Amino acid sequence: MAKGLGKGLDALFKDLGPDNNNNNNTVQDIFVKDIRPNPHQPRKFFNEEAIEELKQSIQSHGIMQPIVLRKSIKGYEIVAGERRYRAAKAAGLAEVPAIVKELTEEQMMELALIENLQREDLTVMEEAAAYQMIIDKLNFTQAELAARIGKSRPHIANYVRLLGLPAEIQVFIAKGKLSMGHARALLGVKQKDQQNEIAQKAVYEGWTVRQMEDWIRKLNENVSRETKPVKKDVFIIDREEALRARFGTSVQIRQSKNGEKGKIEIEYMSIDDLNRILEILDQK
């Protein structure tokens, strides 16, 4: 059953069913030393300034909202509230208020992802990596994951495709130096070294997405002139660029010498990527 992201965690716990006592919201004090972070935490970067501010708030007012935990072999694992846990630890608290839920590994991974998506805490690359982790570990298809977390399949596919970009570009995206729009434009460049060169130029010169798209279009025009004796019509070049932007992948319109017939080639990287493109084609 699809779970909309507008729901709070309490509603999501109820969706998991009554079998595992997930409706029990009894708050208890748990020793900080017995708690460890969620090994499936999608978030990789925590703002130290925000943690410091939260620490000071906790020192003045205590923890206002309990952390959500699950029992593990060696104590407890965090399901929701790692920022509060880190701040409490920094504040020197021996115990924290917590609600303990009985959750499977799958439920824990799913809830950790949904909590971060609800709070919009994840970077683009953290979100992409989280989707891929759940797909791999829980053997979900992109369509199944989309239904579980209330996203569209093309949304999942577009994020997962970012993991195919070179590591240097992924770092730029993770640090906010390149946007999702920049990343999608770079996916239309086949050569990894060219992707890196364009990304570096975009970061150092502060390109907008439109500037990057224009640069890539000119690059593809030059490649076309070098490899084909027949010059493409300006209208065809514009249509190719529009199609690349729509499908988020490389698109080529190839004409015969007399220009009367030809073919359109749309590149896809996987079956899920093909399904994403077919969904776009089905849209009216």
Automatic annotation (TrEMBL):
Q: Which UniProt keywords apply?
A: Chromosome partition, Cytoplasm, DNA-binding
Q: Which domain of life is it from?
A: Bacteria
Can you say where in the cell this protein is located? Cytoplasm, Nucleoid
Instruction: Write down the CDD domains for this protein, in alphabetical order.
Output: SPO0J_N
Example of a GO biological process term: positive regulation of sporulation resulting in formation of a cellular spore
Query: What is a single molecular function from GO for this protein?
Result: DNA binding
Signal sequence, renumbered to the chain: none
Outline the extent of the ParB-like N-terminal domain: 28-117
For this chain, the family text in UniProt reads: Belongs to the ParB family.
Q: PANTHER family under this entry?
A: CHROMOSOME-PARTITIONING PROTEIN PARB-RELATED (PTHR33375)
Protein name per UniProt: Chromosome partitioning protein ParB
Q: Which organism is it from?
A: Domibacillus aminovorans
